[in-house]
Amino acid sequence: MRILRWILLIPAALAASFISHFFAVFAQGLINGFNTTAEFWAATDMHDAWMSGTLAIICVRGTSGAFSTWIASRVAPSNRAVAARVWFGVLAAAIVTMIVFAVMRGVPEDGIGFWYRSVLELVAILGGSALILLDHED
């Protein structure tokens, strides 16, 4: 039974991330209008919404990272801090790799919007996850 919980850690955290992302975008749609929200999330760059877009990305992706880490810590209740650290390590390794590739690729010729958005989304996910990890530290 113990090994089953550790095997379910990653799928449960990923499912939690997708679910929290859906509800956060739905809430944003209720506030800003569904057409505006759909246009922003469908765009590959910041869609000329630098300030509000940055805030939206930090809130939505940060919530997604935080909720996934929280669920990962609940999968193994006797080892909450260890489970949170393991999930944060997996997430950090993946995100640092993606950021390195984004930086190595450089700024595309059509502007900095795509590069900025990609790095901001990854950092926001990692930041939200780090907040929950810090809460589980003994």
- Biggest sheet details: none
Helix and strand pattern: HHHHHH
Query: Uncertain segments of ≥5 residues (pLDDT<50)?
Result: none
Helix content percent band: over 70%
Q: Specify Rg, calculated over alpha carbons.
A: 16 Å
- The total of beta strands comes to 0
Seen as an oligomer or otherwise, the chain set is: single chain
Task: Average the pLDDT over all residues and give the rounded result.
Answer: 87
Query: What structural category characterises the helix and strand content?
Result: mainly alpha
Number of domains: 1
Terminal-residue CA separation: 25 Å
Shape: globular
Question: What fraction of the residues are assigned to beta strands by DSSP?
Answer: under 5%
Task: Compute the number of helices.
Answer: 6
Q: What would you say this structure looks like, in words?
A:
- There is one protein chain.
- With 138 residues, this protein is an all-alpha fold.
- It has one domain (2-136).
- Helix content is 83%, strand content 0%.
- The protein is built from 6 helices and no strands.
